[in-house]
Amino acid sequence: MNMHTPFIARVVLAAMVASSAAHAADAEQKNTVEKCYGIAKAGKNDCAAKDKSNSCAGRAQKNADANDWIYVPQGLCDKIAGGIKG
What we know:
Helix content: 25-40%
Largest sheet: 3 strands, antiparallel
Order of helices and strands: HEEE
Radius of gyration: 19 Å
Distance between the termini: 55 Å
Number of domains: 2
């Protein structure tokens, strides 16, 4: 047996544990946040626009564009003027 095998096995195991923890956190976050359209500041949107005018986070061209969104805590979008729950 190679002397590096136990070390490599521990590194692989640590990577797998970290990956599964990140996946669990993503699943939990989806239950506590919602997309809110119409409130993102220019250049601060979270992902692609609804109308496909941009395909990446941080590409919103203007403030409060109804096609751009950000994640907000569940229930907050309804309380923000101009916020459209998505």
